[in-house]
Amino acid sequence: MITENTVDNSNLENNPKKSRATLWIMIILFGLPYIAAFYFYFYADELELGQTNYGHLISPVRQISDISLKRIDNSNFTFSEMKGTWILVSIGNSSCQKSCLDNLYKMRQIRKAVGEDRTRIQRVFLLTESSNIESFNRLLPDYTGMEVMIPGNENYNQLISSFSLSGEPTEDGIYIIDPMGNYMMAYPKDADAEKILKDIRRLLKVSKIG
Q1: What's the pLDDT score for residue 117?
Q2: Cβ-based neighbours of 201, under 8 Å, separated by 6 or more
Q3: Can you tell me the distance from the alpha carbon of 58 to that of 75, in angstroms, rounded to the nearest whole number?
Q4: Is there a contact between 87 and 163 (Cβ–Cβ < 8 Å)?
Q5: For the structural domain made of 56-206, what CATH number should be given?
């Protein structure tokens, strides 16, 4: 028995274009919330940082080559040893004048300031040369836990140059490597430590790894 509520599908069946259009409208209406949820879940980090970060976001990120490096004690090191943590990197010469000393201090204090999350952060200093290594060694008791690398192979200079930003000098900046081994944020010479700390806290908050 046909009632007044019965849907007449004959028009749709006779008009396949209209049927497809109706189908796509239904897909969009019901699928849009899931698409939006997917986007915001996977890109929330970039959305938040892109609006408020102090540091320069490296886009696209640069995978730091896992070359063999030499620590200051001549033992072997690769960045993969620190994979799964956030790494603060600075670069300078062994004379370590004011900008170099400032960066050593900033990296140490930033790590301390995050409290319980300090275990999620590592520090690395890349020396561009080692002519005053004895003088540099005398600084290290004040910066325990920081890894120091000395030039050790032909790829070392290439690694250091990979941190350069828009042709600017690599030395005297602070750089961040994410838990996946990507160089993803840079700060120039004399960057504000409080603002770097704000970025770091945000990264730790939104990070799903590291």
Answers
A1: 95
A2: 114
A3: 30
A4: no
A5: 3.40.30.10
